[in-house]
Amino acid sequence: MYDVRGLSMGSTSVSNSYDVDAFNQNPANIVFQRGGNNSKFYFNVLTTFQFLTNSDYLSLDFYNDYFGENTDGSSTTLTESDKRNIINSASDQKSTLTSSGKLLSFLYNHGNIGTIGISLEDRIVSDFLLTKDFWELGLYGNEPDRLYNLENNSLNVYWTRQLNISFAKLLKIKRNNLFETIAIGAAVKPQFGIYYFETTKNNLTIQTNSQNTIQSTGESEFLYSGLTDDVTIKFPSGNAGFGLGFDAGVNFILKKFSDQGKLSVGLSITDIGYIKWNTNNATYYNNGNFIITDVTNQEQIDSLKDAVKSTKTPVSDFSISLPTTARLGVTYKIYTKKDKELSGLEIGSISFDYIQGITDNLGGTTKPRFGLGAEYNAGDIISTRAGLTFGGAENTLVSIGLGIETGPVMIDIGTNNIMSIFTPSGTTNLSAGINIKYKVN
Amino acid sequence: MHIRFFTAKFISFFIISILFCSCEIKSPALPNYDIDLRIPFTIKNYNIFDIIDRSNNIGIDSSNNNLLFIYGESNYRRIFGEDIKFDGIKKTFVTSASTLELDTIITINDSTFVTGMDFLTGDLNFTFYNDLESNYSFDATIKNLFQKNSNDTVRIDGTVNSGKNLTINLNLSDHYIKNKKPDNQLYIRILFNSAVPVPVKFSYVLSEYSIKSMQGILKPLNTGVSFEEILDPFGSDVPEGELSFSNITPDKNFFVVKKFTELYQVDFRNISLVGENKNGHRVRLKYLKYGEPGDKIDTIFSLTLPQKDDSLAYPINENNSNILEFINNIPKKIFLERTDFLNFDYQEGAVNYTDSLSLKLILQVPLNVSITKPVIFRDTADVGIDNEEQRNNLDKAKKLIFTLTSVNGIPLKNVAKVLVLDSNFNPLLPITLMISNNQDSSVIFNAGSVGPDGYSSLPTVTSYSAELDSTDISKIKRMGKIIFENQLFTDPNYIPDPFNNVKIRSGDKISIAGYGTLSYRLDFD
User: Fold this and answer.
1) In which band, very low, low, confident or very high, does the pLDDT at B17 lie, cut at 50, 70 and 90?
2) Are the CB atoms for B385 and B522 separated by under 8 Å?
3) Choosing among A48, A87, A212, A437, which should be mutated to test the B contact, i.e. which has the most B CBs within 10 A?
4) What gap in Å lies between CA A398 and CA A417, rounded to an integer?
5) Cα dist. B389→A272, A299, B42, B392 in Å?
6) What are phi and psi of B135, to 5 degrees?
7) Which ipTM value was assigned to this complex?
8) Residues 13-32, chain B: which have Cβ within 8 Å of A?
9) What is the pTM of this model?
């Protein structure tokens, strides 16, 4: 997840983020503040939230049209055209829903010691994929002489919480002509697993023949760990797993790069670590081998029921690595000619990030992502932001956002997909984030 | 500062309102839609062994494309027992004018010369007469007749009183003959104990006798006419209908004649084999008159088992017999009548009353057939929708189309009748009548396609459907049994010219399925 400002700027954050927004992006950056600010404390409480949907079909319109209740309380009745549209749109497309929020965060700048920050964050990621054969089976029933391949159907849900304890220090290295400052930072992040549900195996196929006998083969298995032992969700009052994560980062500001601006280079690696899940751990196994040649045959019906019914098998603790991500980026800040010291609020900045996930675990992706973002500060209050994102799970997106600073209150709103503003109901990459934080001088 | 703060708040909430107010998110509700669910109610797979029950009489010729064949065997075995019989000798008188010692012979058979003969039955009876005025006694020895219990030479003696007769009977079952060379006589020496030579008069009678064993030269012996009947030579599950086989399996059909000990030549004479089918229709098997190539074929024929051979197989084929006519009648019974002769070539040998002979008829016929009168088989399947949810689903159905479909891989046309009944066998739905509207309430499932080699090449799919109304649907809910009646026969339309027959393999099968296509509104409310 990105900070809301980075979200608006083409998912760039490793070299341009600051204060509490730098948590999880580059811990070195927590020593930085918005240009012109020099506050001791930053904090927020339940005021940072963002969500992302990433799908090729799952828009609000799609949901409302087919899976939403009508004004009279009735359900939608699908026409033949609706069915075809659902199948054509939703088949074999992975959809990811991600939401995160900061329950609280706090940051203290101590001039000599450095900057220390604490943040408590929740993150929920779920993804699912339904194959074309699944949709056709569900919408048209069992057609004769068909092979329904369901092996790519999957559902994964991860809910984790972490306590981020970050420390950063700004180093001023004398007698060098290269760096004006070097910020280094690290974070220790105790991890608390809340729920883990993953499709670990699925090779189910259903075959019908001209006589409409139904033969299913294969098996499916799900791995679960969570606060409840019956795969139900309750508000988290404890944890189902515990682990440890680490972030490390550095940010270099180059000396005398330009009279009108500063160039900073950021490098970070985040979420090195694991969560060991240890509560209500179980696999849910479905033996999908059954044959129905005669629906009046109770033995066959029983075998079908057995196939639908999962076999729960307790399993020992298991560890899942965190979605480790490496980031490398540069930011060039442009200042007014009056600002000879280049210490005030910049006119604007341009950032570029290269983001490389190391694992697919817990909603991560190993597809590389490139971000290009810009910010324009129209006066001290309003900052407008925009960016482009290439690659990653979402491919190309245009992002946009707004920052408002009103004394002690700093507000960021943004989206990584501009279509979320213009056609929010129609976009399949709906995203939005809001961040309200407070500073105390 | 306060102004800036509230300005910022206003702008923020204005933008957020624009963003989210344009996003209407409805309450979740699963959609309704019409769906066709195809529910298999029953499926029956019949292979050829379900039609012709598998038994030892049905085989698979793995060297010939798994072609099925019917195997039949009729074994007619006999043990001689008392059948090796000889005529006896009528009362024969021996007289001598005056003597004290007499040597005489009894010829037991004109043409049989034995080195040994063990009797099973028979009596040798002597009667001595005394017409004198005084008594006399005698002491006789039969040199080559011995007692079984002591192996002593048979001796008879006695005193014949004046004016009286003395009869002495030898039960031959207690005696045996032993000769150094084949001989047909008993040698008798009689000594008379009298002061003076006496005129002698005695007689002997040899009854019809049978033997336990003998060695030597047996006269050609007719052991009598045998009449035997074999039931179900092709097993008890011979299919009904009229089958026309195109050929018999080459080199698999024989008469096998056999003897179970070293024995004289055996001649099976005047063999008559009659096959009778289930309907009582009889066909006589014709074969080479004397079992030799070149003989004319006849309903009465003879087979010979030479002395040197233990068994001999006489091949049967379509050229030396009317085997196809015989087998196409598919006999339920085969009657055999014959006369066995021993030692027709009059050679030295041996025979024992426990010796046996057999005449076996072995037939193997591939299922390369034309069936003009259907082979009928029936089957009853237990069905029933016990699950209440399933029954309720039937109630939801807007309509139900019942389809009966056949995938026929057997090269035979199937005229089928299917009847749905409740569990008490009360008829509910005459399915085939409903879907075909034929007067005889049957449907035709076409034969599997037949290739030029006569085998089924591709299964043929045939389907019939009928839409059931709510009344019929409620009957489906009550169904408990389904009765299938299948009539199979060859369909010339599915056999490439110029053939008339089809070949049936072990893997050929027909599948008949009944399923319903339920159209209903899937409603999650």
Assistant:
1) low
2) no
3) A212
4) 5
5) 52, 16, 18, 5
6) -80, 160
7) 0.79
8) 15-16, 18-20, 22-32
9) 0.68
